[in-house]
Amino acid sequence: MALTIKVLANGRVPDTLGDPVYSPSSATPAKVAIVKIWRFTNTSGGAVVLNAYFQKGGDDFDPLKARHILARDVLIPPGHSVIDDLDLTLGPGDGIYADASAGDVVDVVVSGMERDA
Fold first, then answer.
1. What is the pTM (predicted TM-score) of this model?
2. Disulfide engineering: 90 pairs with which of 14, 27, 70, 94, CB 3.0-4.6 Å?
3. How many CB atoms are located within 10 Å of the residue 66 CB?
């Protein structure tokens, strides 16, 4: 069970909730993770509203199961970033989800540690 420090995910935040931004694998070998820091950067020329959530147990996003992990409706000015460095532990299939008021203009990078469950 080696512990791997790495970029867990990078990509763009969609304008609708669906697939997680990051989720440890629940397939064999299942993974667990500690997210150490995540960054959301607005690459557009206008302000963007962002919401980010943690959901235990994976599956599709479910507003009844999900919990905000940033303040609700965070406003990110053009060219600015929101950075959170509070640790978040995730088990196999848990997920981090996010959506923005404009799709494909907010970059996301999730860094941390992952190991076999």
1. 0.92
2. 94
3. 18
Where residue 28 falls among pLDDT bands split at 50, 70, 90? confident
Contacts of 79 (CB under 8 A, 6+ apart): 42, 43
What one-letter code names the amino acid at 63?
P
The span from the CA of 46 to the CA of 42, in Å, is 8
Count CA atoms closer than 13 A to 42's CA, side-chain side. 20
Q: Give the residue extent of every domain in the chain.
A: 4-116
CB contact at 8 A, 18 and 95: no
Topology adopted by domain 4-116 = Jelly Rolls (2.60.120)
pLDDT at 58: 67
